[in-house]
Write a structure and sequence with these properties.
This protein is an alpha+beta fold. The protein has eight helices and eight strands. This is Nitroreductase:4Fe-4S ferredoxin.
């Protein structure tokens, strides 16, 4: 998905330290004549470990034009700050009408792009719903209206989502009148869900509020016409839907949570 990536080794710069060879997940890199070399019989998935670990800048990743950040000797994140941020995080269901700036939304999506993916597949893409947000919400609400009617007629043999309230099936039920929503789409739902978590953290760092709209994804994935209108490919799934905007509520403290359920084996 996306650009073709090629690992290139500059033999003149290579010092033969072997760090890239030792860190290659698929053993694509080998030592030949005291230099790092590529074993053409192995399949590289372009994770970039070799590029990131090489002290001599002898490895290049061809086909990419992305910012490279030199890393300090200590972690970027302070553990106390991160824990506090996670404790303070709230799902926002009241949004101001003020739309989020495009620059901020692009930064939110950038956080999703930078999130790790299985086998470095980088196969998550993002659909920003803004101008059509009310129309798309109406489509899914109509699906839920039909489903709730079938449930009533069948004596609740038709299963509805936990906590579902048919009396609230009006505009705002799904997106809570947020000015926009972002869909994380991928053939692998785990990749898209990981991206969504990073995006939420970035949104909050930018002063935006987020709520995961879990009630949107299943009916949207089942709606053939909606999938076609959103250009969702057959092999793809909408794994996460984030409603985003400026919060119209202020929380004054964190809320207690249950202790972790841990089993040590």
């Amino acid at each position: 998905m996306g650009q073709e990536i090629q690992v290139l080794i500059d033999a003149e710069k290579c010092t033969g330290c072997g760090l890239c060879v030792a860190d290659c997940p698929r053993r694509v890199l080998v030592m030949r004549d005291n230099k790092a070399a590529i074993d053409a019989t192995k399949q590289c998935f372009s994770c970039g470990h070799c590029f990131a670990v090489c002290p001599a800048l002898a490895v290049k990743l061809g086909g990419l034009d992305d910012e490279v950040v030199e890393l300090p000797g200590k972690p970027f994140l302070d553990e106390t700050d991160l824990k506090t941020h996670l404790k303070c995080r709230r799902s926002i269901r009241h949004f101001k009408k003020t739309p989020a700036e495009r620059e901020k939304i692009e930064k939110v999506i950038e956080a999703g792009r930078l999130t790790p993916t299985g086998s470095n597949s980088q196969n998550v893409r993002f659909i920003v719903i803004q101008n059509e947000i009310e129309t798309i919400e109406d489509v899914v609400i109509a699906q839920y209206t039909t489903l709730s009617e079938l449930a009533a007629q069948s004596g609740n043999l038709v299963m509805l989502p936990s906590g579902f309230d048919a009396d609230r099936l009006t505009r705002g039920f799904l997106f809570h009148r947020a000015p926009l929503a972002i869909l994380c789409v991928s053939p692998r739902e785990d990749n898209a869900c990981l991206a969504a978590m990073s995006m939420e953290l970035m949104a909050e760092a930018l002063g935006l509020g987020v709520v995961y709209v879990g009630l949107f994804t299943n009916p949207a994935n089942r709606n053939v016409k909606l999938r076609e209108s959103l250009a969702i490919k057959k092999e793809e799934r909408i794994a996460a839907c984030l409603a985003i905007g400026y919060p119209d509520v202020q929380y004054l403290r964190t809320a207690p949570k249950r202790a972790a359920n841990i089993t040590w084996r």
